[in-house]
Amino acid sequence: MLIVENDPAKVETDLAEGVIGCPACGGRLARWSFARRRRLRGEAGPVEVRPRRGRCVACRKTQVLLPDLALGRRVDAVAVIGRAFMAAAAGAGHRKVAAALDRPASTVRGWLRRFRWAAVRVAAHFTVWAHRLDSTLAALDPVGSALSDAVDAVGVAARAASLRFGPRPGWSWASVLTGGALLCNTSSPWPTP
Fold first, then answer.
1. Most exposed of 22, 63, 116, 138 (fewest Cβ within 10 Å)?
2. Which residues of 23-176 form beta strands (DSSP E)?
3. Model pTM score
4. Looking only at Cα atoms, what is the longest distance across the chain?
């Protein structure tokens, strides 16, 4: 799985021009059919996506090119999940957050547990990205709990990425900078800066 912009026309152009590299060997990805359609639960209702597949011309491995509005193995858009993290960082409990987002309490509780479990690692990862993207950035001061520090680090890294590469929603940057694995259930490493 590879996270790309949420612009199917740009993804098609990038594949045709050989701009998208293979994460396995660094070769060039070419068009290779589509992955199954997915219906994400977005902030304003269902969002239909049909991720493109790319196949490396060198190693022949295929990759699903998932748009940056999604996380791997999650049915909710990353912006919805990010809103839950921000609400929890502000002190809201999982039931209140679930009601505000119109999501099952068990789903939101699962997101928050996973994020809290990885909060120190999330904060460190995004702090490194923020400093690599903006070398003039000062050290990030703790803002409270580990959860709050992680949310703050995501925001700072997203701002630095938007300033360097162009605007994109903040939580979309979180998807990009973790390779869609922000809430993965394994300890596999995220992409390094």
1. 138
2. 29-34, 38-42, 45-49, 52-56, 62-67
3. 0.94
4. 50
Coil vs helix vs strand at 128 = helix
Token pair, residue 51, equals 């991720």
d(CA 73, CA 26): 25
* CA distance linking residue 31 with residue 63, whole number of Å: 10
The set of residues, in sequence order, having a beta carbon less than 8 Å from that of 94 and lying 6+ positions away, is 88, 105, 108, 109, 112
Main-chain phi, psi angles of 85, to 5 degrees:
-65, -40
pLDDT in tens, 54-70: 999 999 999 999 999 99
Q: What is the SS3 assignment for 165?
A: helix
Is 20:54 a contact under the CB 8 Å cutoff? yes
* Neighbouring C-beta atoms of residue 109, cutoff 10 Å: 16
Q: What's the pLDDT tens digit per position in 73-127?
A: 999 999 999 999 999 999 999 999 999 999 999 999 999 999 999 999 999 999 9
Beta partners for 67?
Answer: 4
> How far is residue 133's CA from residue 147's CA, in Å, rounded to a whole number?
22
- Residue 7 tokens read as 């612009």
